[in-house]
Design a protein that fits this description.
This protein is mostly helical. The protein has helices at about 5-15, 15-30, 45-65, 70-80, 90-105, 110-140, 140-145. The protein contains 7 helices and no strands. The model has no long low-confidence stretch (mean pLDDT about 90). The chain binds protoporphyrin IX containing FE.
Amino acid sequence: MDVALLQQSFAEVVPQQEAFAEAFYQRLFTLYPQTIPLFATTNMKRQQSSLMATLELVVAGVVRGDDVVPSIEQLGRRHAMYGVKAEHYPMVGQALLETFEQFLRDKWTAQVEATWTEAYAMITDYMKRAGERHIIAINTPEENRRV
Ligand code: HEM
């Protein structure tokens, strides 16, 4: 994966991160209104900076060669507790990539798109699997028989 490309394209949106995050949530809620209730009690101003800050941390961690997997798995377990399910991940992925395209314009090349698609798939794969394991671990045997 071309991490330098991730970093460069991310740096482009950092100066506009508030507008970026706002555009992202607007796009997500328009495309997939079923995600709105998940954020019912969320302070959206704080949430907007968390999403971007986390993406930045993950990218920086990968660049340094840190093992970012345990913290991504933790994030996945917390998301399972927010009610986020595997099917929601592609929805956020689409909204995120389309927002990148909107902000990067001619800098959104096929290569940049491919790299972000790969990075998002990798991150969310760990999140989804850790989230599913967590739900199974905290469910009663009876609840697990129903899923
Ligand atoms: C790469 C993928 C994602 C990243 C990096 C990310 C990042 C974050 C971060 C940093 C928080 C703050 C709370 C915490 O750290 O636990 C958060 C909360 C949350 N995220 Fe995500 N997220 C991702 C995917 C998703 C998806 C797919 C959904 C589903 C629609 C989602 C819905 C939520 C909700 C509902 C909260 C809780 C807000 C609250 O505190 O009320 N996230 N996310």
